[in-house]
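Title: Prediction job returns without error message
Component: structure pipeline
Severity: low
Priority: P3
Assignee: unassigned

Description:
Job completed but the reporter wants confirmation the result is attached to the right record. Sequence as submitted:
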Amino acid sequence: MSTEQTAEASPGDAPGAVRAPGSPARRRWARPRPPWADGLWLATGLILLVAGLFTVSLMPPGQGNDEPNHFLRVNGLLNGVLVPDPHGEPSAPTKFDACTLSYLHEVEQRAIAPGPMRLGNFDDYPSGCQGQTGARDYDNTAVYSPVPYAGHLVGAGLMRLVGAGPVAALYAARILGFLLYVALVLAALRVAPTGRLFIAVVALLPMSVIQASVVSTDGAAYGLALLAAALVLRLREREEPDRRAALGLGVVLAALALTKVPHIAFVALVLLVPWRHFAPERRRADLLRAATAGVPVLLLLGWNALAGRITVSNLPTVDPDRQLSWIFEHPSGFLEVLRVSMFTDVTRDVFFQLPGAFSFFRTTPVVPQLPGFWVVCAYLALGFALAAGRRPVLVSGRGPRLQAAWALLAGLGGVALVYLALYLVWTDVGAPSVSGIQPRYFVPFLAFILVAVATAFKRGGADPPWPPFAAVSAAMLAVIVYQITLVYY
């Protein structure tokens, strides 16, 4: 029994029972809290749960980005449709329960109608649809693998098992999807040896919480990206081999590759992990490291081969094959398209909206995003959290500096892949710039900045107190929840 944790136990106490220091008359079990379950870990989890509960409840059904089609994707997977058969057409029509289709149609119409919405009418849908089926396209989400829908599938699947309707299924999918996001964030805080404050601030951004609170692939992508960065930092800073963390990194990278194509850029972080963390022998370690990077690539290629026939049918002027041919024929012209797209007012607006923006279905005089003051606060919090525990002194030696540059380059490569993907599948043939850019696509790539800074700059003293950062994050979430009420109610 440790004398550092407890006072001396008295005769007759139960085995393992100890006297609480300062309270000789009270017995308690010695359960020291693990070092990672500190105030930051607990506060992040609590704020996430409270903010998520409000967002899940207040965001009207179907008002998340592409949420109706994401929910249809979940239902299609539960129906056993892994990849919809386009039947020679580019679209992906699939049969669904008519009540689900009627409910989604009704909530979409209520959202675009003038006047405030009412929480009480989110749980009703037209009668007389029981036992009927209908078909609807959901081609822009049919290309996603089941991996980012893991939580949603569990929630909606449980409701289906108990015979609940589409309302319960939608909200159960939201809740379980959000709980998966919380679990991934807390796991990242658990394993990260440094940069925990930055992980918490990114996880608590209104954009992160909103996207994780609705049926979408973004919540899983954000949590996996933070966990990947945490595992890389853990493997880099530990002196002894950590095969468990190395295996976890491989699993996370594989899951990230199956969320969205641009996330394959995270595989580049494997090169930052010392070989000795994979195996004691160099040859075997190199093989395992190659497998850790290669398996996600193979999984992505395999999934794209399955879903590659599906294209977005509501964009008749988009032709990915012609776009790709044009890129190969005019590489300098495509670089000019990227330059124009990445340095325009639209892109600057993306950075302004990245900390917190939501919805685009409802016409309203209220701008559905964080006010300017809070946007500045968000970037200040991110900047200070990024510098927390680091000295403004570069590490010695070319190796770490090159590795930091590699991390930044990989992150920029991921951003470029976002533009490339949208140019191929969402941009008209011959357009001078990329269409469809949204700020939510770039949140995962903040993790590359954390890895680069942690690699390039020397460790300093203790991190600054976390309560101010938690307070700013909670305030931003309160503001965005208030914005939701202004937009819809």
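Comment from assignee: result matches the submitted record. Confidence is low (pLDDT under 50) at residues 1-30.
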